[in-house]
Automatic annotation (TrEMBL):
Alphabetized PANTHER family for the sequence: EXPRESSED PROTEIN, OS04G0407500 PROTEIN
Organism: Eutrema salsugineum (Saltwater cress)
Listed InterPro entries: DUF868_pln (IPR008586)
Domain of life: Eukaryota
Pfam families (alphabetical): DUF868
Entry protein name: DUF868 domain-containing protein
């Protein structure tokens, strides 16, 4: 009898880290019909520009308050990351009541054009304070508006730490005068990324809080196909768009004749987690003007027992593992 992973879906893909090295290998339990050993993207290709990234966090304070904090990094001019091009907005709202924003900061405000500062406001949730320092922020080479190091963003609610982003250590922040308790609970429940450019999109994502970061590449290109024989005995060639999705340089989905298969889904396993991959590229082909529409790709982990590591028996799955929130990555891809 086949194991649970291989029986779950005849078209599933299993992507996992090797235990002996940092290289990525396809699990023997995967029953993919695709060749996962081949990289689907040439390293010479230049990916599209990320115009904005929105991360949505669910926060639990020690006072048992549940908050939703939304952080958006944007590239206002679609240029490579520079301090005068990038912007940041933050909103804080209650997760227990009807969604209502208690605090919203954005780059159109005069104070937030500064690369270092703070802002506080009294709200129904309590006193909300935001501290930020982007003066030495450094950005990744993939034209992302989100800094990767040399910065911090801190959100406090009634002097309790709600959110801490950046690479500053606890010791560094204490030296800067921050004396809050660093013990807090946060979960990244959604990440939304907007791209603009050619049909080549590259990003990274974690599908679990304590998991590894995975490279995700999406590309749409033309594949030469043979048509009907003509009277002169020559084959007629035409190009049909093909969609390729890779995780850690492994092809997990290949969709041919994309004009007819513009919506669909695929089940994949990433580090043992069950992930649904869905795509909708309808507007790439049927928008006005044609070819300039926005496609949507979603990677979503299954919540509850379904998202547990599938080779564990049910009695071995801890309750706190079942109660974890699912995570979704949405990629909005504008092909220009």
């Amino acid at each position: 009898m086949r194991d649970l992973v291989s029986c779950f879906s005849e078209n599933s893909i299993n992507v996992t880290h090797s235990l002996s090295s940092s290289s990525l290998t396809s699990s023997s339990s995967s029953c993919s019909r695709f060749n996962t050993s081949n990289a689907c993207i040439s390293p010479s290709l230049i990916p599209s520009i990320q115009t904005s990234i929105t991360s949505i966090y669910r926060i639990t304070l020690s006072s048992s308050k549940h908050l939703i904090i939304k952080v958006t990094w944007c590239n206002k001019n679609n240029h490579p990351p520079q301090s005068n091009n990038n912007g940041l907005s933050i909103s804080v709202s209650s997760a227990d009541q009807n969604p209502s924003t208690s605090l919203k900061l954005n780059t159109s405000s005069r104070f937030f054009r500064k690369k270092k500062g703070n802002k506080s406001v009294d709200s129904d949730l309590g006193k909300i304070e935001v501290f930020w320092d982007l003066s030495s922020a450094k950005y990744d080479s993939n034209l992302s508006p989100e800094p990767v190091q040399g910065f911090y963003v801190i959100v406090l609610v009634d002097s309790q730490l709600g959110l801490l982003l950046g690479d500053s250590s606890e010791e560094t922040l204490r030296k800067k005068g921050f004396g809050f308790d660093f013990d807090f609970e946060k979960s990244l429940v959604s990440r939304q990324e907007h791209f603009s450019g050619n049909a080549f999109y590259s990003t990274k994502a974690k599908f679990a809080e304590s998991g590894d970061s995975h490279e995700i590449v999406i590309r749409c290109n033309a594949e030469k196909t043979e048509g009907l024989k003509q009277s002169n005995h020559h084959h007629h060639h035409h190009h049909s768009p093909v969609l390729s999705v890779c995780v850690d340089k492994k092809t997990v989905t290949t969709v041919k004749r994309l004009q007819w298969n513009f919506r669909g889904n695929q089940t994949i396993f990433v580090d043992g987690l069950l992930v649904d991959l869905m795509w909708d590229v309808h507007d790439w082909f049927f928008s006005n003007p044609e070819g300039c529409g926005k496609a949507v790709f979603m990677f979503r982990t299954r919540n509850g027992l379904d998202s547990s590591r599938l080779w564990l028996e049910e009695k071995m799955v801890k309750k706190d593992e079942q109660d974890k929130l699912d995570f979704s990555l949405l990629i909005y891809a504008c092909k220009t």
